[in-house]
Amino acid sequence: MRIATWNVNSMKARLPTVLQVLNDIKADVVCLQELKCETDAFPYLEIEEMGWNCAVHGQKSYNGVAILSKFPLQDVTREMSTLKDDQARYIEATVLAERPVRVGGLYLPNGNPAPGEKYDYKLEWVAALEDHARSLLKAEEPFVLCGDYNAIPAPEDCWDDTVWNTDALGLPETRAAWRQLKHLGLTDAFEACDGRAHQYTFWDYQGGAFQKDHGIRIDHILACPRMTDRLTGVEIYRKARALEKPSDHVPVIATFED
DNA sequence: ATGGTAGAAGATCTA
Fold first, then answer.
1. Cα A13-A16-A20 angle, rounded to 5 deg
2. Which of A17, A53, A96, A143 lies in the 20 to 30 Å Cα band around A74?
3. How far apart are alpha carbons A116 and A114 in whole angstroms?
């Protein structure tokens, strides 16, 4: 089965592009972030028409996450057990594939400017995610955590580390939090399958960043040990950034043995 | 030259 994550940067502004990309990437499960719409404003009809089941945690203006699945979804939760959050940044559901898998879709806070309140919130959020991941591991149900982590794991995951290592996305403390998360026993699917340097998932709209390949890798799929055993490949669907009216992020897709 | 781009909201904030 193929599990994808994609920050769409507005469901309303992106709908034609989203429908096209969903057809192209042939995933079974897709986690979406930055819907920028309320739950009721999600385009259920258009998406369901394509055979998707939808679980949505929307919010006006900012944030908003969803899980789309070709398989039925069960036991949807819209918060981590470990954080009371007034921002719609998390959703989790069990995908009833042949072998069921728990899928978490997340939109980690950006954290800029750092230091400051926003960076504190980011660190609090990632700490809550770590605690939540710990409880998922304890439950011994296969799971993946997909989303926009707003974290550049290492210098080779951006085009110029001197630009990013003072940003909330690339600060040493952000990278330490990312490593700590992995050290629970989770695997970065991209790193496990490919791991090449300078493969990006986000390019800013400004200054022709995509044309210059001034990107960063911040969209990730973390897999538990049992899902890692089934992991066979990862693709960054870079093409999506060259479409008309693109999101500034592109999908990342991991393939697992059925 | 204190700039640039996009989206949502609404005359600014977030990324």
1. 135
2. A17
3. 5
Helix axes A172-182 and A117-139, enclosed angle (nearest 10): 10
- Return the closest nucleotide (C1') to the Cα of A63: B14
Q: How far is the CA of A226 from the C1' of B15 (A)?
A: 35
Cβ-based contacts with strand B at under 7 Å: A 9-14, 36-37, 60-62, 109-110, 112, 118, 204-207, 245
Separation of A128 CA and B15 C1' (Å): 22
pTM for the structure as a whole? 0.97
CA of A82 to C1' of B9 (A): 31
DSSP code of residue A215: E
Per-residue pLDDT of chain A (258 residues), as tens digits, is 999 999 999 999 999 999 999 999 999 999 999 999 999 999 999 999 999 999 999 999 999 999 999 999 999 999 999 999 999 999 999 999 999 999 999 999 999 999 999 999 999 999 999 999 999 999 989 999 999 999 999 999 999 999 999 999 999 999 999 999 999 999 999 999 988 999 999 999 999 999 999 999 999 999 999 999 999 999 999 999 999 999 999 999 999 999
* C1' of nucleotide B10: residue with nearest CA: A61
Provide the positions of strand B that have an atom within 7 A of a protein CB. Answer: 4-9, 14-15
CA of A229 to C1' of B12 (A): 48
Using the C1' atom of nucleotide B7, identify the protein residue whose alpha carbon is closest.
A10
As a rounded value in angstroms, the CA-to-C1' distance for A172 and B15 is 21
Q: Give Dmax over CA atoms of chain A in angstroms.
A: 46
